[in-house]
Design goal:
The protein has 258 residues and is of the alpha+beta class. The protein contains eight helices and 13 strands. It has two domains: 110 residues, no CATH class; 137 residues, 3-Layer(aba) Sandwich (Glutaredoxin). α5 runs antiparallel to α6.
């Protein structure tokens, strides 16, 4: 499990409304037959049922059949729910596991949905640091007050042949923004950010220069980032939370282009 710093945890049940959840989670319009789950009529029925149960607060983005007969995947943003073919029961929290291959199908699907086009990231807004030749590239979203960001930073600075684009975020504590501003206003922002996270050394400047913190905040919202750290590898795959060095190294190798 990856570890993440977050100011708040939003559960889907909140947006659905507590009254919507009973013992059997009845959907308004049950699906007719399992084999018709992916056709337009079945999708329309599921959307209508979810519209009624959520009171219009959550939009169903996609309905897909799963490898389990009579069970369907309902996607709300990047959140996955599983509804039975009769429309009587729904799994709210839980992953779908292929026991034979030992694959987490839910996790694989979420990772697929969260993959981005790395080329669209506005890297000019980030703090750039190059280790060695910098052939491998990652983009990192961090908050100066995030404990797991500090652990990740300690691992990142030890990597060779990597270019690190850091997008500072400021939402965990009252002084997160002032720390980020001072780091970005320093003569050497990359060194200042490393010192800030690794040694808690706040740069000695007023932090009044023009920074792209607002643009980075908007970018994070667009990407659905609600906690830190978040890493994007050069093939667009996303890592949310802290992964130990050995695991991170394998991911970096697997998801680096070239």
């Amino acid at each position: 499990m990856f570890r993440i710093c977050s100011r708040r945890v939003r559960r889907l049940a909140v947006s659905f409304g507590a009254a919507a959840f009973g013992v059997s989670l009845m959907l308004a319009a049950p699906l007719s037959q399992a084999q018709k789950a992916t056709d337009d009529a079945a999708e329309a029925r599921v959307r209508a049922a979810m519209e009624q149960i959520t009171g219009g607060r959550s939009k169903v983005d996609e309905v897909r059949a799963t490898p389990i007969p009579g069970m369907y995947e309902v996607r709300v943003g990047t959140r996955l729910l599983y509804v039975d073919g009769q429309g009587k029961y729904m799994f709210l929290d839980g992953d779908l596991i292929d026991l034979k291959s030992q694959r987490n199908l839910t996790q694989e699907r979420v990772e697929q949905l969260q993959t981005i086009d790395f080329g669209v990231l506005p890297l000019d807004l980030a703090i750039k640091q190059v280790n060695g030749k910098g052939k491998r590239v990652v983009a990192v979203f961090e908050d100066a007050n995030c404990g797991y960001c500090k652990r990740l930073r300690a691992d990142l600075v030890k990597l060779d042949d990597v270019t690190i684009y850091t997008f500072p975020l400021a939402f965990l504590a009252a002084d997160s923004e002032s720390k980020a501003r001072k780091a970005m206003c320093a003569a050497d922002p990359a060194r200042a950010w490393n010192d800030l996270l690794l040694s808690n050394r706040v740069p000695d400047n007023a932090g009044t220069c023009e920074t792209p913190l607002k643009q980075v905040h908007d970018l994070a919202q667009k990407l659905g980032i609600t906690g830190t750290p978040v890493v994007f590898f050069s093939n667009g795959r996303r890592l949310t939370g802290y992964a130990p060095p050995e695991q991170f190294g394998k991911m970096l190798a697997a998801h680096s282009k070239g």
